[in-house]
Amino acid sequence: MKITVLTYLDSEDENSKDYDPVVPQVARTLRKLGHRVSVLGVHGDVKRLITGLSRRKPDLVFNLMEMFGDNVFGDIPVTGLLELLGLAHTGSGPGELYLSQDKGLTKKLLAFEDILYPRFAVFARDTAFETGGNLRMPLFVKPLRSDASLGIGGKSLVHDAVALMERVSVIRKELDDAALAEEYIEGREFYVGVIGNAQPKALPPVEIDFTGFPEGVPKVMDSKAKWDERSKEYKGTRSVLAQLPDELRARLQKVAVDAYRALRVRDYGRVDLRLTDTGEIYVLEVNASCYLDKESEFAMAAAAGGLDYKRLIERIVDLALARHKKRS
Predict the structure, then answer these.
(1) ω into residue 138 within 30 of 0, thus cis?
(2) What is the pLDDT of residues 255-286, one digit of tens each?
(3) Are residue 150 and residue 263 in the same domain, yes or no?
(4) Contact predicate 139/158, CB 8 Å
(5) What residues contact 40, with CB distance under 8 A and at least 6 apart?
């Protein structure tokens, strides 16, 4: 097939080849699978996007677009454009992406399905401050929609109303986003990848090992822990395949699949969970079209579940094509 790998460019120089590392990984893998592959990188030019797709006439778009221009939520309208153009593409559609990115809506859908999640309050950008109602301190405060741990750091865990309001103000001002305050859940953290549509299958759970985390710092994967390779937080965490009793592993996987279905995630995604000392499993986030780097937790889990990287990419392609054929 002709497959176009669609991605964003940080630079306005549309001739730049400074792609996210996952782009060449996916492109090379698709070529190894026998496909004719092109890469289309766009910063924020809609005409260039449409022209590039029209010239290539792909049988499938492998969608790795995470933002568009300076809009961190730009992946949603780009995906909507792909659907308007009638192009088959991997991953969730605009509706599913919006639901998973709006953490408040995510929790309301989880509530409807009786799936456990931390109690929360949303502080919209254009409303007066509130106190957080009857939420129990400490609270973890983060942007309502921004992903990749943007706006999450050492001051995100608050212990009183004054600190809560200060953190809400920072998120509103610096990220131009509403703030979400949720009860902090102490416990072990797991990532459970899920792949599939009609019959989604959970991959083996990956646990975040916080053994080397700095003392006194909340054990959360904030921006430092994820991206700052020189930080103590980054050096103090590692992702490992979870060693669990069969019953607990099955429970984690069931909750992940239930959350995946509740958010209508398509093709593949990752569910972030917390397990308390009393055995309760809380859904923290549902990540539609999660990161596909070869070293990611999702790829690690897929390999443990019998899908090496080549077979993982092939499986995503097959799922997207089968879904598109059903609609056409």
Answers:
(1) yes
(2) 999 999 999 999 999 999 999 999 999 999 99
(3) no
(4) yes
(5) 4, 5, 6, 7, 49, 52, 53, 56
